[in-house]
Batch of 4 targets.
Target 1
Amino acid sequence: MKVTRLLILTLFFVAAPQSTLAWHDTGHMIVAQVAYLKLSPAAKARVDKLLIPAQGRRPLIHLCAGYYTPATCEKIYDPVTIAVWMDDFRGDSINDEYDPWHYINHKPFFDGVPERGSVGPEPVNVLDRINWSMNSLRKGTGRDKTDAEVLGFLYHLVGDVHQPLHATTRYTAAQKDGDAGGNGFPLKMPEEAGIRNLHSFWDAAGGAFGFQSPKRPLDDAGKARLLALAEEVMKAYPLEANAAAANDLEPLHWVEESNALGRAVVYKNIKEGDTPSKAYTDEAQRIARMRLALAGYRLAGVLNKMFAAS
């Protein structure tokens, strides 16, 4: 089955058109936009109910420095921007407990050093939390606000698990404790790119959409741009042509795919301290576009199945 899934994935590795504007905010919102375009009417109605407030009502999810008012709340969320909510509240020590939610040390990559059976995933990890989110929404929490928050977790984590370095860590003689999914793998990049390591290079989709995230709240131009980018990756990797992979809704398989890509592609043809070559960058961008499209299709598939009777 694993071989079959990897063969299916190779169908995604076709030439994709280049674009200019990151699995940072942009990448996550592309996943959400692709998913939104593929929601069934019932699933869309439930997502809209949780994430689009009625006229005059405040949204169920928002981040405000003080008491909520539409004029002063700096971050509110809709079915596209909800995908970055988990990153928005990172960086505060009170939320450190959520950090392990974003990744999994699946099948550690021992590069030139003996394998160590003591190394492996933490009990709480991205796979564990995706399954928890799906099960919680399937049953329903009994409260719309809590459902909206769990939905926000699911949106973000499905995006994260499709980034190869959120499921792969390399161990070497120099890094016996691992490189934390490429965070300890330095790269040499232009200052303006803001990229310091292999992980951030892949989080930014290899620069497929530029290295700067769009300003939020999104204006009409920003919304149009995200829609165009979502349509671009969908055109490059159509759902109809890749239905077998897109319809695989088992989160463990998503982890296994990312880990396989990490081993076979991400850590190949690049050394610590390198500037990524054009060939490496082109490959990273192709894979990133493929994974973003796939994440969006799968997220929609999960939500369509979950909210079929909404």
Target 2
Amino acid sequence: MNTDARLIYITTETPQEAHTIARALVEERLAACANILAPVTSIFRWDGDIREGDETVLLAKTTSERVDALTERVINLHSYDCPCIAAFPIEGGNTSFLEWVVEEVDL
């Protein structure tokens, strides 16, 4: 089953930042819901150095039509210069839940 639903993976510096972003996305109907997972350990290369640190993961559920607007909103709210925002298609799952996602962000 292919759906219009998308899972957006976002990392943030703190749980508080993730909460602020998640709340804005849901209030503005850019996402139907969001989950905050903390802490996660991230290892990455930045400015030529390998770095490691704790981050918070934010998972948001939206539709393909809202991905661009959601991405722009996260960029505007985010503290990072280059925030991780990645959209993944949801290929299957609970049909009732996926329909709810679409209804919640439908303009």
Target 3
Amino acid sequence: MQGVLLAAGKGTRLQPLTLTRTKAMAPVAGRALGARVADLLVAQGIDELIVVVSPSDEEIQPYFREHMQIPLRFVLQEERLGMAHALSLVVPFLHGEFILSACDNLVPVEHVTELVATHHQHGAEATLSLMPIAMEQASKTGVVVWEAPRVRRIVEKPKPIDAPSNISSLPLYIFSPAILELLPFVKHSARGEYELQDAIQCLIEQTGRVNGVITPSRQQVTTAADLLELNVQALQETPARIRCASSLPHDVQVIAPVVIEQGVEIGAGCTIGPHVYIERGVRIGAGAHLANALLLHGAEVVAGQQIDNEVIAPLSAFAPKAS
């Protein structure tokens, strides 16, 4: 089985972080978000990972080649025209069943294992990752009619009043090649995209063999607050409670868990932690206090500044780009 990771998204709501990098390359305690999602697919024994990327993302290909121990293929998505469009670009390279995931959706690895097992047990053409949601969230996701284990209907981003249930379809799927034959028939939606849910609905109508499995939990990175929360959790789970690759003045207090990359300058009398991740090239002035924070490459903290529950981006991220 192959894995497909959709990593061409711009991540507008993650700004300012995504002014200098894509969402897939957002840092989570030292490992890119997209790589952490890919790890879930690799754990299922996939024999190849196909990554759909933006031509403007210059970091992701060398990063994945260095950090992923599996055969890789990269496919460019020149225009962001939806998940069905992204999948259509991969069709020439698929040779059987595959796992498809967005790059910002983290679920327990046991859930992905259950998805694969359920898919094979029931001889399904597709198996969807599902999760109950509040009805007011229906307009932000796909919503299904689910009669376990079968998915009877799927609707993309309905108004809450029109939602057929409170069960959301997450961007994680197991597919047979049958879905690929339906992609050419997906029409441009009102949102200006080719929706994968439309192809799934066609599959439901044609075969009836579309299943769903409820995940007990999920983390989606949409905003900077989501990314910060994910970093705090990942730091709590880090075996080495303090990892520091930069030299520190003797009077700097470090409160675990903290990770500090190489090339970080920290002034005297600072307090760092708990739950702080500092990327390379960050400069922190004397007497600063940081807690529950993510500092991105090139960021600066002035002397005496108090940082708590923040993602700090470099000033260059906000500078207008030269035409």
Target 4
Amino acid sequence: MKALIDNMKVEPRENARILRSALDEVKSIQTLLSDVYKDDGGGRTLLRELVQNADDANSSKLSFVILEHGWTDCQNSLLKGASLVVINNGPFTVRDHEAIHLAIGGSKMEEADKIGRFGVGLKSIFHICEAILYLGADEGVLRPGVVNPWAGTDGKNDSDPIHPDWDHIHKDHDLRKLLEVARSIDYKFSNGLLLWIPIRTREHVDRSDDGRPSGIIDSYPNTNDLFNWFSRPQSLVYLLTQCGYLDEIKVYRANGPENIDADKPSLKIFRNDFKADSWVGRHNDDINQQFTREFQGSIEAENNDHVNSWTVKGIEKLGEETLIKIRDSDDWPREHHWIDGRSK
């Protein structure tokens, strides 16, 4: 037998991994958008997920900026057109830098105390765009990048075969521009995450040989749509009530990045005298035999020199004693944590 093998040419495959193509990831995002994160009208899904994502990052401040245009001289063409810019002040860690590129899952998977613990909510962004740019910061360390589902879809390399300029943020020019926008809202931006979300246009979905639109989904909102979605005080108040860390949400609208005036938001929603432990809790609060928890506070909205206020009172239902005992038992199912190929 050995002689038989010696006389044959052997070409083993060095990598035993199951491969997943870039197109598989695009299809996964399309499925998520049509099923799990189907928009229920008026941008509510997108708004909810962006607010929850900021709260998951322990952010206290969140800003939405609707821009009519970007910069004409950027190398990445996604920075030139109308965009939604989202900025929060939660730290963007090394782990987050990797997790934002996971089409399914994310850094929240093992953090059961967070709302979006399975990490797919951020993919609702693709309801309005084909790719996103981001700039994260953690203790003064900048972590820029691009999430482009179309990168590598030709199976030849990791670049976008149709729009290769989408894949990169030019360090000396584009990065500086993004940092200027972040600092126009948060002058230090030592911790935070800026998402630059280019609003989908017909020019973005030119991947079909027959000229028909071919993108992630067939949806083309405009800046008026986005402003209407993100400037509803009642929606933002309702979302802020459910957050454990956020105490302020601002909405801006500007012709371009150079026109953003941080002192003049179109809408500001904030909680007075906010203390994280005085509002809704997390599952870790199911202690000391306390099975209900009262919370109260006030939320104000400043809109075109008008101020409205809401008084919030509620009772939060926590874990029953029986549930707590079951969850603490050895038979309670738990997620696997993989370390060096072994699970715990």
